């Protein structure tokens, strides 16, 4: 349907270049224009209401109308709307937020508390910054050959040149001439599809740790700098690894002096039922990257939290050159920093962790109860308030649909009709990560609508 002339939709088609969009389809179909939000819901221009099953992009953790965050931004704008952090300049929001993050960070790989925080504006920038920190550190420590980075197929770490090279999804590489040299990918820890017949989760985890070790040995441990992982893969389809996967991986990394970088951009701040995904999955990172729920996504901010060992490496290099030549105009911008501080206070004061544990347990159980036996549902996975539902053509044989059928996308479209904004990903997996404030009743409403959409999809596919 052609949108009315001069409508927001028509002007969008005329002028906007959208991220993650099939542009030719967009020219034809136009956008879904969202104009306001309340709680876990957003409303389009016609006033139609949707439950945001993915909190936008796994990020609007406190929903869409938190007044405290609005006030925090306004107050900071009035006091100091901008200042930077270059050349030893500082300001209170930057210092307060750094301190809060260090207090809350998990212990580093060497058992000591994390040491310092660097701020950027997005998850991609934070991952790029962490890569540059590691390269810089290894040059400063006199081991310039130790630069290669190993990530995982289906991992998602963003889209800037280096972050996209970490990412292990074809759409982020094809036609972009990526990944860059020196970036490698090992297997996805997805037992459902990747285990050998009869292989237990434990044996699967052992095999993947061995695969990583073989990769490090083949490349030469003296050339491998870091391993990158999301505790639970998000955009790759919500893949939860076996319980012993990360401890086994971590042991291999320690043995070969390879750093562990935990990308907590989705998992951080209670999403998995603990403050950090690292705690849920048994990871002690050398570097932790976070964003999204750090500021409930009301303003852009991301952080790279580093261990003392990494900080010492960077400090060494910077004193030899006279500066650490890295940083963004908006690194630690006072307004997003003030919003992030308020966000972390809200998490603490409202016991959002206790809430996620309760409502998350309900969501996980209800998903399995309602859809576990559904003929289209191959696997339900997740913990806390993050879940994945994979649609399959053959449940017994775990066979996916032909990707050309876009079955996940069709479910997401049907969901839209019934008041759900959903996210379809690899292998027709739908991701659920609603705002952390969602109630049990709202989860039930979301799943009622999902059930209706799934039933309609069944009819369509007959
Ligand atoms: N890392 C993870 C785990 C993510 O999920 C994302 C975004 O979804 C990113 C990094 C990239 O963040 P951004 O889109 O803010 O660059």
TrEMBL record:
InterPro entries per record: Aminotrans_3, Aminotrans_3_PPA_site, PyrdxlP-dep_Trfase, PyrdxlP-dep_Trfase_major, PyrdxlP-dep_Trfase_small
GO MF terms, alphabetically ordered: adenosylmethionine-8-amino-7-oxononanoate transaminase activity; pyridoxal phosphate binding
Coiled coil regions, renumbered to chain: none
GO biological process, one term: gamma-aminobutyric acid metabolic process
Pfam families reported in the protein's UniProt record: Aminotran_3 (PF00202)
Cofactors demanded by this protein: pyridoxal 5'-phosphate
Keywords noted in UniProt: Aminotransferase, Pyridoxal phosphate, Transferase
Origin superkingdom: Bacteria
Coiled coil keyword on record: no
Entry similarity comment: Belongs to the class-III pyridoxal-phosphate-dependent aminotransferase family.
NCBIfam families: PRK06105.1 (NF004767)
Protein name (record): Aspartate aminotransferase family protein
Organism the protein comes from: Roseicella frigidaeris
């Amino acid at each position: 349907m052609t949108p009315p002339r001069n409508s927001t939709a028509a002007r969008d088609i005329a002028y906007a270049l959208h991220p993650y969009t099939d542009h030719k389809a967009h020219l034809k179909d136009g956008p879904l224009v969202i104009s306001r939000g309340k709680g876990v819901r957003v409303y389009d221009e016609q006033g139609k209401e949707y439950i945001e099953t993915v909190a936008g992009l796994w990020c609007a953790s406190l929903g869409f109308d938190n007044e405290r965050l609005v006030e925090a931004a306004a107050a900071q704008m009035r006091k100091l709307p901008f200042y930077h952090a270059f050349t030893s300049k500082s300001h209170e929001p930057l210092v307060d937020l750094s301190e809060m993050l260090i207090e809350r960070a998990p212990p580093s790989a060497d058992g000591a508390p994390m040491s310092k925080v660097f701020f950027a504006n997005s998850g991609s920038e934070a991952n790029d910054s962490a890569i540059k920190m590691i390269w810089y550190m290894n040059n400063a420590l006199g081991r310039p050959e130790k630069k290669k980075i190993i990530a995982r197929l289906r991992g998602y770490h963003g889209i800037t040149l280096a972050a996209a090279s970490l990412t292990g999804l074809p759409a982020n590489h094809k036609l972009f001439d990526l990944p860059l040299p020196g970036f490698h990918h090992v297997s996805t820890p997805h037992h459902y599809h990747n285990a050998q017949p009869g292989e237990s989760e434990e044996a699967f985890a052992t095999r993947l740790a061995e695969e990583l070790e073989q990769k490090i040995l083949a490349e030469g441990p003296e050339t491998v700098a870091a391993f990158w992982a999301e505790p639970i893969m998000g955009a790759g389809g919500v893949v939860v690894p076996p319980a012993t996967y990360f401890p086994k991986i971590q042991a291999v990394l320690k043995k070969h002096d390879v750093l562990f970088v935990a990308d907590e951009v989705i998992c951080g701040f209670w999403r998995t039922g603990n403050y950090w995904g690292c705690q849920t999955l048994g990871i002690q990172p050398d570097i932790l990257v976070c964003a999204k729920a750090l500021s409930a996504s009301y303003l852009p901010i991301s952080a790279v939290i580093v261990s003392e060992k990494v900080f010492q490496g960077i400090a060494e290099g910077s004193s030899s050159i006279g500066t650490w030549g890295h940083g963004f105009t908006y690194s630690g911008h006072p307004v997003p920093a003030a919003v992030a501080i308020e966000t972390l206070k809200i998490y603490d004061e409202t016991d959002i962790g206790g809430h996620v544990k309760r409502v998350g347990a309900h969501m996980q159980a209800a998903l399995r109860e309602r859809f576990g036996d559904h003929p289209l549902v191959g696997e339900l996975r997740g913990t806390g308030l993050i879940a994945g539902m994979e649609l399959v053509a053959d449940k017994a044989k775990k066979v996916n649909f032909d990707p050309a059928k876009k079955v996940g996308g069709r479910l997401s479209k049907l969901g839209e009709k019934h008041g759900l904004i959903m996210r379809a990903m690899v292998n027709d997996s739908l991701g659920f990560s609603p705002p952390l404030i969602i109630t049990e009743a709202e989860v039930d409403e979301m799943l009622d609508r999902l059930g209706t959409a799934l039933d309609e999809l069944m009819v369509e596919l007959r």
